[in-house]
Amino acid sequence: MSDITRLTAAALADKLASGEVSSVEVTQAHLDRIAAVDGDVHAFLHVNEKALDAAADIDRRRAAGEQLGPIAGVPLAVKDVLVTTDMPSTSGSKILEGYMSPFDATVVARARQAGLIPLGKTNMDEFAMGSSTEHSAYGPTHNPWDLERIPGGSGGGSAAAVAAFEAPLALGSDTGGSIRQPAHVTGTVGLKPTYGGVSRYGAIALASSLDQVGPVTRTVLDAGLLHDVIGGHDPHDSTSLTDAWPSFADAAREGARGDVLKGLKIGVITELPDSGFQTGVASSFRATLDLLQAQGADIVEISAPHFEYGVAAYYLILPAEASSNLAKFDSVRFGLRVDVPGGTVEDVMAATRDAGFGDEVKRRIILGTYALSAGYYDAYYGSAQKVRTLIQRDFDEAFGKVDVIATPSAPTTAFKIGEKIDDPLQMYLNDLTTIPANLAGVPGISIPSGLASDDGLPVGIQFLAPAREDARLYRVGAATEAVLVDSWGGPLLDRAPVLGGAR
Hints:
By secondary structure, the chain is an alpha/beta fold. It has 16 helices and 11 strands. It has one domain: Amidase signature (AS) enzymes, CATH 3.90.1300.
């Protein structure tokens, strides 16, 4: 049998169910892979010491004839923004170094109940503020395609772990693109569900009206399998939708074998000209659209005139909500405490937040606090919310004409570590195409569309669908994936020259 770590979650699930391999064998293979390559990748902040015990329990239950979930026994990486009882939960910040949560995030609890094996916690930009995973307090993660380049952010650790075959599945969170942009630059699949479709309970909050938890995988089917586990109503989350959701894995299977693309109306936004994107990204996007058109899809130009204001609105709404959410890190209740001899509570709080927060977090807290301050609330935060409404209306109008909207998942391929760290504006523009989905609450998926012609690095195509139509994304994503993989002659990660698929 080929290397276990190269198998998809779906393939692993089949082999586990048939008894061809055990969960202990699968888990050990991934732990060995982590030990072999993570010194270079730095995808993990913590490796689960109890992973093999959990795997052995699944093997015992399966041997006893218990009916287990479809992907029981498959390993899972967990973004460190999600709290866990048996591993530290730091959100990539010194202010939470060593913090142990008294409860599991709902998505983690559901993963455990489904028999998934948590391998560890993955690296991320501090409190999910960043597009490169360079803002982690524990050092950057490296892209498995080129170790000198970023793996995207804020969830670069989860994407890099999946791309480097350290885990077949991972959980991420997406506030403005933090699942989809890392997928774009690492050649993986990432999906942001409809807002409220997956519980945020136990996800350390950045911007509560934008945050959403979702899957990071190597195939669309694997994403659907994980989404089926973590999705659905949660009474602990006041924003959780009560909808009955279809099986996303079944939707992916339908897309892979059916004629989903024939007659599909794919919207292309006229306000996103090729000139705004790296040449290799734009050419890959257009080549993918040509392939889909050859399969019977209709490419329809649509207007979304307010999308161009999305970045500006987002970087007022997010900091404002972040400044409020991060106020809880005050040196009094939990987390880091820097004592100031003879100082007041305010002195201790100031010293703790100064020592515990990184520069990017401080930048956004200051910006958000200013935007919410007396005399500026309406001018900044209020105006940004009005732009948000206009973007939602753009989506409503567009989806009256097309089934899905397609864009490049990000403007560029992976840039070199350190290249943009001192230029916040350029860093923020990495989320140009992903931010509108978060502002409107609609689902979005990024799947690999090939390698950029100008630098040979991975590129992704993003599809957006109306709210609650996540299953449509799985059908379209899987159909597109099948066409692309056939055109490449095999999975894209088989071409990774460093730690990915090179053999």
